[in-house]
Design a protein that fits this description.
It comes from Amycolatopsis lexingtonensis. InterPro entries: YbaB-like_sf. This is YbaB/EbfC DNA-binding family protein. The chain contains 3 helices and 3 strands. It is elongated, with a radius of gyration of 19 Å. The N and C termini lie far apart (46 Å). The protein has helices spanning 6-31, 69-95, 101-107, and strands spanning 36-39, 45-49, 55-60. It is of the alpha+beta class and 126 residues long. Helices cover 48% and strands 12% of the residues. The protein has a 3-stranded antiparallel sheet.
């Protein structure tokens, strides 16, 4: 049975993680924060989320308030879901060059196909 050098294996893993961190940090420094955005077709509601879906921005035009709270809540949730997918897509493309695809899948970051309605008109890190 071959000996396994745990210290050497640990050093290699640590080095790989540090390299991936440095590469990812450099990409984020060049691009700025990764967020997802979505707006209603008429532009009266806009949402912004961080990867994972944390709401970081919400703009509601005064005229939208006349539709009632239930309609407004449904619209905000729908837009937040769209923005969350976009943020995940942007994070995927930011990290794909430095993180294994299986790890991105575990984190829930996946690319959005170009023909998907949630695809942004601009790209991130591509």
């Amino acid at each position: 049975m071959a000996d396994f050098d745990i210290e050497l294996a640990t050093a290699r893993i640590t080095e790989q993680a540090e390299r991936a961190e440095a590469d990812a940090s450099a990409r984020f420094a060049r691009s700025g924060p990764v967020v997802g955005k979505a707006a209603s077709p008429d532009g009266t509601i806009e949402v912004q989320v961080a990867p994972g879906g944390l709401l970081t921005g919400l703009t509601i035009h005064r005229s939208t308030l006349r539709h009632g709270s239930a309609v407004l809540a449904d619209q905000i949730l729908e837009l937040a879901q769209r923005a969350t997918r976009r943020a995940g897509d942007r994070m995927y493309h930011a990290l794909a060059p430095v993180v294994d695809k299986a790890q991105l899948d575990v984190l829930g970051y996946e690319p959005i196909p170009d023909d998907d309605p949630d695809a942004d008109t601009y790209t991130y890190g591509r």
